């Protein structure tokens, strides 16, 4: 009769081992790995509400664009950084009760940004030149959005977590995958927004604020899906197709939502950016709500056997 050992600490489990996804845990680490932070849902909701308030303040209260030149670019860059600042502030306030090493969170955020700048966007824009050939029919844009843009962006966000914090002892809860995935997504979004501002020599304040919020919410929610799959893969026997399936799902979500955003933010020749904000906020809220609900449902202990050991 073999005695189960905890897959986290490696110590023999006394009594009935608690099982999760085919792996055994001691009481301490099962309680930890299955911990569902209620505060994280609050933090995500606060991010969405905070971005909406930021957009409303800029879109409806800012005067007509009177800035030009370097001043316009500087203000645009500040707008591009707002989602990351809101996320970090909200996370810091929530984190006082349920601490997560801030240097790791910041590191994953920066890594997501750097991968976007050094690999992701150069591949999409310069190598595959998506904007030059995938601007025709809806079907072509959708195909390019999933197979090229979505696949590259989501793999790099996955890599930012998988090859950094994932192997650290600090990644000790399944929900950590969603937390760090969202951080990587916000890092990627920050680069996209900064690049957008610089490429256009600045942006209209109202429209720019909406775009910044839309990109941040969308990229964070896509990466949250991959993070969910990563979180379960580390602590459960999910099989060889689990992570590829997560990446595929995130890439499809990326391509479909991004294409829809480009469609609904323009009615005829008139830009309607607020439509995109509504869709992005709805997608982010629904995505994270579903992920947290599934995680909570799958956190119930399953005693292995009455005698404590598993055959």
Could you outline the blueprint of secondary structure elements for this entry?
Blueprint: E1 18-20, E2 23-25, H1 27-33, H2 38-61, H3 69-95, H4 102-127, H5 130-133, H6 138-162, H7 176-199, H8 205-235, H9 242-264, E3 266-267, E4 270-271, H10 273-297, E5 302-303
Antiparallel strand pairs: 1-2, 1-5, 3-4
- Please state roughly what percent of the residues sit in beta strands, choosing from under 5%, 5-15%, 15-25%, 25-35%, 35-45% or over 45%: under 5%
- The total beta strand count reads 5
**SSE arrangement, N to C:** EEHHHHHHHHHEEHE
Report strand order across the widest sheet.
2-1-5
Oligomer: single chain
Helix content: 55-70%
Main sheet: strands, sense, barrel: 3 strands, antiparallel
Form type? globular
Radius of gyration: 21 Å
Are there runs of 5+ residues with pLDDT below 50, and where?
301-311
What's the total helix number? 10
Head-to-tail CA distance between termini: 6 Å
Total domains? 1
The average pLDDT score comes to 82
Pairing-aware structural class of the strands and helices? mainly alpha
Summarize the structure.
The protein is mostly helical.
């Amino acid at each position: 009769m073999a005695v189960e050992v905890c897959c986290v600490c490696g110590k023999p489990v006394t009594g009935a081992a608690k099982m999760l996804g085919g792996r055994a845990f001691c009481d301490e680490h099962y309680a930890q790995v299955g911990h569902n932070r209620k505060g994280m849902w609050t933090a995500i909701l606060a991010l969405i509400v905070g971005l909406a308030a930021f957009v409303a303040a800029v879109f409806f209260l800012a005067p007509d664009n009177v800035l030009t030149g370097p001043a316009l670019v500087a203000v645009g860059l500040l707008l591009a950084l707002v989602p990351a600042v809101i996320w970090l502030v909200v996370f810091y306030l929530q984190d006082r009760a349920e601490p997560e090493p801030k240097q790791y969170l910041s590191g994953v955020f920066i890594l997501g940004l750097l991968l976007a700048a050094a690999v992701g966007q150069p591949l999409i824009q310069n190598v595959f030149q998506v904007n030059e050939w995938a601007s025709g029919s809806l079907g072509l844009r959708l195909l390019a959005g999933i197979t090229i843009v979505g696949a590259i962006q989501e793999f790099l966000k996955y890599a930012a977590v998988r090859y950094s914090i994932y192997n650290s002892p600090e990644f000790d809860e399944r929900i950590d995958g969603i937390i760090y995935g969202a951080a990587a997504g916000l890092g990627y979004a920050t680069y996209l927004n900064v690049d957008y501002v610089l490429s256009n020599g600045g942006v209209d304040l109202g429209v720019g604020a909406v775009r910044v919020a839309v990109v941040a919410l969308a990229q964070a929610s896509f990466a949250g899906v991959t993070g969910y799959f990563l979180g379960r893969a580390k602590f459960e026997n999910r099989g060889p197709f689990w992570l590829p399936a997560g990446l595929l799902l995130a890439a499809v979500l990326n391509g479909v939502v991004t294409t829809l955003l480009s469609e609904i933010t323009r009615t005829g020749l008139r830009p309607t950016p607020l439509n995109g904000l509504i869709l992005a906020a709805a997608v982010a809220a629904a995505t994270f709500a579903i992920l947290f609900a599934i995680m909570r449902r799958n956190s119930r202990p399953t005693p292995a056997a009455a005698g404590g050991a598993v055959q």
